[in-house]
Specification:
6-stranded mixed beta sheet; mainly beta; 4-stranded antiparallel beta sheet; single chain; globular
Amino acid sequence: QVQLVESGGGLVQAGGSLTLSCVASGSGLGAYVIAWYRQAPGNEREFIAQINWAGGANYDDRVQERFTISRDNAKNTVYLQMNNLTPEDTAVYYCNAPYGLGYLSEWGQGTQVTVSS
């Protein structure tokens, strides 16, 4: 079983950048697809981006041109580089490993990203 822990959030001004990290323990990243999600207050958790073992990535249209997902399998870490942030990006960001109709890991506490205008 894989456990995932998010970090790297913080407070940033609009137009700024942050890099989030998702570190896998237990069985490590393995060949799992890892995805980033976010949840803003009052909203459902939503998909942001995902990456497979070989580095192939998919993005939600709202972040396609601004966010970059990457992974370092040797470090068991997936990153989310976020550029040109806007207040609409304010949310708690989570990572997980989608598998079938569910996920391989329990949801963690996430990491808070707050973008001020």
